[in-house]
Design a protein that fits this description.
This protein is mainly alpha-helical and 106 residues long. It folds into two domains: 63 residues, 434 Repressor (Amino-terminal Domain) (Orthogonal Bundle); 32 residues. The chain contains seven helices and no strands. The termini are far apart. The model has no long low-confidence stretch (mean pLDDT 89).
Length: 106
């Protein structure tokens, strides 16, 4: 079971990273100005359809919402999606660059 405080805190974290106010996010989602405030303060939680809209708002999947292990998980997912469009030779070229960069950063 998901801890409701995790959902509230994660929405707040993502909102702050995006640099929008509670009011602006509420407005962007088509709700009253207190909608996000009520979530952040623990007065309510979003229903599933709203949760999915919130994920869309932040440009993440529901899995990424719950994955806090990687700060760049959304960026990594986007990179993987783009890599899938390339042919094997191009992927090998990029893989060589990744390995070189990873070696240099140690």
């Amino acid at each position: 079971m998901v801890d409701p405080s995790f959902v509230r805190n994660r929405i707040t974290q993502l909102r702050l990273e995006k640099g929008v106010s509670e009011y602006q996010m509420s407005y962007d989602l088509g709700h009253s100005r207190s909608y996000v405030y009520n979530i952040s303060s623990g007065r309510s939680l979003p229903p599933m359809t709203e949760f999915l809209q919130i994920c869309d708002y932040f440009g993440i999947t529901p899995a990424q919402f719950f994955d806090t292990s990687s700060k760049n998980s959304a960026l990594i997912e986007t990179t993987i999606a783009e890599l899938k469009k390339l042919n094997d030779d191009d992927i090998m070229l990029i893989l060589g660059n990744i390995r070189r960069l990873a070696k240099d950063s140690k």
